[in-house]
Design goal:
Radius of gyration: 17 Å
Number of strands: 6
CATH topology of one domain: Ribosomal Protein L13p, Chain: A
Distance between the termini: 38 Å
Number of helices: 5
Shape: globular
Strand order of the largest sheet: 5-2-1-6
CATH superfamily of one domain: Ribosomal protein L13
CATH architecture of one domain: Alpha-Beta Complex
Largest sheet: 4 strands, parallel
Structural class: alpha/beta
């Protein structure tokens, strides 16, 4: 018996659309990361990008549990002395809600070239409209 490994030409990619309205950020991000990596498929290979595309809509309606909405901050640094920035979650949610989900999913992917390629298959939109109707995405119900 030989172990079957999927070849790059045999990878079939599907498109899924996820509604983030009233979803908890971490639970949504972990489910999306699993689909992006392809861990839901029997042909999963850790060294290949076998995952599917995911479209997340209604990103501005994401929620956090507990006091995290008032306490969570996002850190940025340009590399220059004294240039660190701490952006509160609520300000990020009103200005760039799609970044919240993208950063949460990015933290759950591998920190290498494969992780960066995987993240490119994530499309996040603040509202319910998205320009990917031609790909005929399937609605995805998350099990949380």
């Amino acid at each position: 018996m030989k172990t079957y490994t999927v070849k790059a030409g045999e990878i079939e990619r599907r498109w899924f659309v996820v509604d983030a309205k009233d979803q908890v950020l971490g639970r949504l991000a972990s489910s999306v990361a699993t689909i992006l990596r392809g861990k839901h498929k029997p042909t999963f290979s850790p060294h290949l990008d076998v995952g599917d595309f995911v479209i997340v809509v209604n990103a501005k309606h994401i929620r956090l549990t507990g006091k995290k909405a008032s306490q969570k901050t996002y850190f940025r640094h340009s590399g220059y002395i004294g240039s660190e920035r701490h952006i509160p979650f609520l300000r990020m949610k009103e200005r760039h809600p799609e970044r919240i989900i993208k950063l949460a999913v990015k933290g759950m992917l591998p920190k290498n070239a494969l992780g960066r390629a995987t993240l490119r298959k994530l499309k996040v939109y603040a509202e319910a409209e998205h320009p990917h109707e031609a790909q005929m995405p399937e609605p995805l119900e998350l099990g949380h």
